[in-house]
## 1
Amino acid sequence: MSFFNKVFASVGIGAAKVDTKLEKDTLTAGDLVRGVVEIQGGNVEQKVDEIYLSLHTTYIKESDDKKYTVSAMIDRFRVAESFTISPNERKELPFSFQLPLDTPISIGRTKIWVQTGLDIKNAVDPTDKDYIKVVPNALISAVFQAVEDMGFRMREADCQEASYRLRKRLPFIQEFEFIPTSGPFRGKLDELELVFQATSNDQMEVYMQVDRKARGLGGFLSESLGTDETNVRVSVSKSDIPNLRSKLQSVIERYS
């Protein structure tokens, strides 16, 4: 390699190109993600220190009474360690990784993507970005169906900065906001907010915020003081699915 070729490589001129191909792009949290990373050598030989895949989304953060959107890395996975790619050489590297259980669902403004990067020392790293669709698993789908059967309609879903009480591995949680449009809670509740935190593939904690509707002077005072909201946690598993509506409804009734 001539001196000029070394300089060109170090600033990213003639750099390798990377493309990731996923076996499928619709998944549920906990699924095994499979695919292949294709690397095409550039005009010069380059040493690649590492190839990695990282999983990302965005969430809403609040500071000084202002809301803004920031990105967050959900996880990172190594595909390959150090190797050298020759000019115009083509490499294919298969990979697999498990989609984390706390990966949010693709709904509303929430987007999830896999980003591929080549770690090339002192160079402009070539990257590739692939969006995936994360759909609810059987347990979350059953909760949604139970809530809908009670007369609620989803009004909004978004990833928000997590409070200290709900913060786990990630700095955000995904909130699902429902309003009662019919059924036993119409006129009793203003809204119902749900947050899911999986403990395994078959079990999760459901955090519910039950927001009671103001009734009379006492109700309006409670609403103004913020005491009309009750936070409750319910553990559910796949074995609960046949009776999920009655289990959730009894809890909501207790605080409505």
Note: Confidence is low (pLDDT under 50) at residues 214-227.
## 2
Amino acid sequence: MQPTLDPATLKNLIFDLGDVIIPIDLTAPIRNFAMLANMPEDDVRDLWQQHDFLNHYETGLIDDDAFRNHVRQLISQYSDAPKGWADEVIDTAWNTVLLDLPVERIERIKQLRTRYRLFLLSNTSPIHIRQVNQVLTGMGQPALEELFETVFYSYDLRMAKPSPGIYQHVLTQAGIRAEETAFFDDNALNIRAAAELGIQAVQVQPPLTMLDYVKDLS
């Protein structure tokens, strides 16, 4: 059951990025790497699951170059496709997870920041953040770091949702109280972990979007 948000008690809003602000397709990178490697999608998906370097990348344990090299080495072991993909080829395939960004969501965030302190908390990678910011600025919109008071990225913090520590870090770093804070995320585990700390955690679930969940906030 979703909590009922009371604007009178709220001072702070924390947003997830993927499937809250920007729609994503988690299967798209697998499809694209499979096409590039001339391999079945299921085989690429199995390799990704067996070699869990993505978690290392999103928690800052490896950098962009190490991530790209992991992709090259992994595919080269199991594919007869041309080796040595350029950085741009890997980045482009990796960024296909990001779908079109609805400008109305950005405009709503800009409205909300006149009334609330706004923060971003995302399990993500530097390649994705650079791409989102490129899309935003190409639309004439502020970059994420300008749109929010503070952005919290898993790769910077070296921890990820749903670890309780990441939520506590945000509360402490921002100097905000859990009970005065709403958190919007699409993942049920992330929502549960935030709620256990007293945050008003709201799961964004299709067919509803972020806009539906914040429509009653002035």
Note: The longest strand covers residues 117-122.
## 3
Amino acid sequence: MKLTVLGCSGGIGSGRHTTGLLVDDDILIDAGTGITTLDFEQLQAIDHVFLTHAHLDHVLGLPLLLDSVGDLREAPLIVHALPEVLQVLSDHLFNWQLWPDFRKIPSEDAPWLRFEPLGFGEVCTVDGRSFRPLPANHVVPACGLHVFAEAGGIVFSGDTTHSEAFVAALNAIPDLRHLIIETSFENALAAIAEVSKHHWPDSLAAELNGVKIAPAVWITHLKPGNESAIMNELREAAPAWRIEALMQGQVIEI
């Protein structure tokens, strides 16, 4: 199993792209602007999308993906997410006002898009790669994702702040090899992080204190222009951990 980072920034500008992770060549985790780095043939190869939540920086590429290659597909693109997330997409995105409802194009019997709810406690397996929602604590319904195959697994936090349930879930994965977790703001902006339910360096360090396993830790969702400051504060706050910034174009193999 191979995970390619298409986008991992908390914003755009100067080549930055928002969250999109490609598993092998046919599955997306979130669909932010990062998917615009794929060529046309790569877009055609995507059959499944797993979403952590419905904020625009994680879903805005989805309607354009369908608009670009929907007519070339032999089967619907399947979007997997919490039921509450799919409801937001139905009400506010694929609603014929902001964007056409591709669940009914070209017909309800043969659509380009299909929603499949994936709730907590459930696992979806696609050709030997399994996806399991984990608890998260964000301002909208959200989850992290445990992505695993026979050789081990990766956890992606999605957008979250402190969550004892998330830490407990991590500690229950003894073969976890990589943890991709967000830290969006510097310590000086902790008040903004708190109200928007994101991590800042001191809050993530406190979270890591409760983690009893030892995966590689990769930081995502860094706000543009503040990346170096956030990473420096993280390394000072959590010196026992080897922490690196996730990079666009990076490949993680399991």
Note: The chain has a mean pLDDT of 97.
## 4
Amino acid sequence: MLVLLPPSETKQPGGEGPPLDLAALTAPELTPVRAQLVDALVALSADVPAARAALGLSAKQDDEIARNAALRTSPTLPAIERYTGVLYDALDVRSLTRAQRARAATRLAVGSALFGVVRAGDPVPAYRLSAGSALPGLPTLRSLWKPALTDVLTATGELVVDLRSGAYAELAPVPDAVTVQVLSERPDGTRAVVSHFNKAHKGRLARLLATTTAEPDSVVRLRALLRRNGLHVEHPGGSELVLVVPADAVTR
């Protein structure tokens, strides 16, 4: 099972790993696109106003541009520790046991505008590039990533659980991947789409999938696994699951 997570705009700074080695990342066949984007970001960083415009940053975020300028020389962290925010707080990899961490390393991957996809243990530097960014002189990120990245993600032979947000899923759609919608249910039975706290619920779901000893190989077996673990999960058809949470649990 491969669980695809969205990245985060925020990144943990620093690190103790060696500088970026693109060839050492998962799926080395993606190296040409990765190198093209790294070179473009480093070059763009020399023109701060242009970098702000391309990346949607304000003057208060110039430190993000400085990070991009140092992409090839700055220290790295495992990808699963580099990304931060609501989903990653809920995933809470630092609290996993050694055995759980090893299992998570084989199952978790992060979609990335810069690297396409990285496995949990891949060493990456802090950077700033979003799925919707447009880099001067280059095609759209979707045009760059879709041909190669979709093949990489579909060639694993594993059940893919795609928890990426819409913009990142569009970079490289995975046919037949299991997707999860989070709905809140009020006492009167009415339901609503969960927006911000959707990330927290998906983080908890990712933690469960990363650490379970089960190996579901279909959407039906995945639903059964989640239900055995106390989650209210519905399967309306196809490869979509619906995670239903009580309205009073939406903010927890």
Note: The CA atoms of residues 155 and 172 lie 13 Å apart.
